[in-house]
């Protein structure tokens, strides 16, 4: 099922048409709903804007309407690309961790974006999902930073947070990047409507371009 979805998106990337096809309802980005009290629902305008940007810049056919999916739900398998964000606690039950693990092994992709304050909880939760694997920082020459848009210094800095340099971490399963985790960057805030955070155009463009790279990489790897 995932390979079919990936093939559909890959066709969009390689199509020769000048204008992208209109969005389809069949291919949507997913927002992960988790327990623990963290605000998984943060940045409600982020994914629609990212989908629209990808359709315009990459020629994808993503629906502008994203889907909300719970960690332990079988519906997870309907989404080839899942986004997770928030500011606080994250709790996975054993069954939820197993479901997310199986989804990622089957070909799914998870982008986690620390909206500030969820880092310690994310790392504990992902250890439940892949106890045998380590989350590692990706080098700047990793292909995820060099898709349609080029990021020579890794993920862009969108919001200040603690003033630390932004970083991207990954979990690899059998040499395939299945989880990308952006820290001290806050890509999702940069994807939101301009009026929400009042970021300058160049900051929003950087965030959207990095998000497009994540989608392009996930669908083509």
UniProtKB/TrEMBL annotation:
Family matches, as Pfam families: DUF4159
Renumbered to this chain, the signal peptide range is: 1-19
Indicate the segments forming the DUF4159 domain, all copies.
29-219
Give UniProt keywords alphabetically: Signal
Record's Gene3D superfamilies?
A: Domain of unknown function DUF4159 (3.40.50.12140)
Keyword Iron-sulfur belongs to the record:
no
Q: What is this protein called?
A: DUF4159 domain-containing protein
Instruction: Specify the taxonomic lineage.
Output: Bacteria, Pseudomonadati, Bacteroidota, Saprospiria, Saprospirales
């Amino acid at each position: 099922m995932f390979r079919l979805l990936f093939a559909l998106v890959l066709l969009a990337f390689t199509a020769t048409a000048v204008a992208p096809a209109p969005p389809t309802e069949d291919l949507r980005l997913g927002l992960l709903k988790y327990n623990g009290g963290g605000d998984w629902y943060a940045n409600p305008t982020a994914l629609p804007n990212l989908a629209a940007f990808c359709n315009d810049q990459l020629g994808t056919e993503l629906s502008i309407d994203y889907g909300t999916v719970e960690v332990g739900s079988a519906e997870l398998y309907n989404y080839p690309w899942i986004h997770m964000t928030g500011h606080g606690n994250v709790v996975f039950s054993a069954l939820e961790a197993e479901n997310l693990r199986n989804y990622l092994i089957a070909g799914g992709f998870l982008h986690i974006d620390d909206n500030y304050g969820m880092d310690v909880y994310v790392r504990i939760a992902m250890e439940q999902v892949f106890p045998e694997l380590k989350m590692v920082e990706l080098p700047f020459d990793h292909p995820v930073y060099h898709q349609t848009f080029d990021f020579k210094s890794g993920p862009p800095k969108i919001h200040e947070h603690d003033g630390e340099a932004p970083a991207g971490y990954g979990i690899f399963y059998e040499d395939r990047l299945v989880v990308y985790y952006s820290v001290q960057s806050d890509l999702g805030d940069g994807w939101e409507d301009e009026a929400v955070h009042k970021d300058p155009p160049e900051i929003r463009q950087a965030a959207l371009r990095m998000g497009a790279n994540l989608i392009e990489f996930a669908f083509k790897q």
